[in-house]
What we know:
This protein has 381 residues and is an alpha+beta fold. The protein is 52% helix and 14% strand. The radius of gyration is 66 Å and the shape is rod-shaped.
Amino acid sequence: MSRNLLVVFGVVIIIGAIIATSASFVVKQTEQAIVLMLGDPQPGIRGPGLHFKLPFVQNVVYFEARILDYAPPQEEIIAADQKRLVVDSFARYRIADPLEFYKSVGTEISARARLAGILSASLRRVVGGETLASVLSEERVDIMERIRTDTNEAASKFGIDVVDFRIRRADLPAANADAIYQRMQSEREREAREFRAQGAELAQRIRARAEREKTVLIAESQRQSQVLRGQGDGDAIRIYADAFGQDPQFFAFYRSMEAYRKALKSDGTTMVLSPDSDFFAYFRNLSGGPGNDVGLPAMAMPQPMSPAAPAVQAKPQAANDNTAQPAATTGVVDAAKDAGAAMLKKAGDAAKAAADAVKDATVGSSSTPSAMPAPAAATSK
Length: 381
């Protein structure tokens, strides 16, 4: 009797365990669940934890509560500037309403098929209205946000919430990539040529300005040098005039001596002149001045001052005595020698004084006189 009771008790416990197991269910942290009554979804979403249901007549369907990833295949899209783009993208979504998700699509496989069509339509609509430059620039962020918003509005009726959308790559097709690259290269080369032309123009402008400034500076310097040189020449001429104006006859004599010195050089030069030429005026007058045919008065010869060469007086002789003639001639010759030595000494002193005056005037005016040659001291041989 007792054995039968134990068997019955054991059967009851087993049946109770089966009923308790079928009447309760556990939802994990990464899941969410809905309860079906004979295949009909019941309202309410079961979150993580222990839940109960009617055994044998209700069942539970679990869905992911985490964010899911979907990567559609690459698509070729024509942009607004008629450029073909191969777009590689992906989306992240989650099941926001499991009950609506179960009613509309049922499973995740069906949801991915629906989401692929929605993403493709949104991608073609938004990217097709943009240019290639916009897709490859910072405007891509705004483009991806508009695609996400458009996709989310269409997928919300399926209980899906699209949380993110990204364009991983937007490449040109291999068929026209080379043509696009060549066009871009030509455009960059055109810009480079333009920049080089602008640089060359600026360089030429700078060179022209520098040349103009150089010309102005050189002209100003030459003008100042000509003014200073003219002032120096004027001072030199004035000093020459003052020096030679003290004795005009000596000046004529000095200039003739300079002409003789420069003309009668031992360089093989041949001069063809007549004996009565004005050039030899001082050779025709023993008194030291030019002849009357030149038109100038004869230079007065200074008298000898040294007692070392007294004049020899002729002794009175008879009219027919011929001994007085040599004595008189000797006295005249000696007097001429002394007079010539004195005149040369006077010429040397005057020439030295004129040279000193010209030198002082030259140092004071910081320029070299070019109007007249510098006087040279006369030397006696």
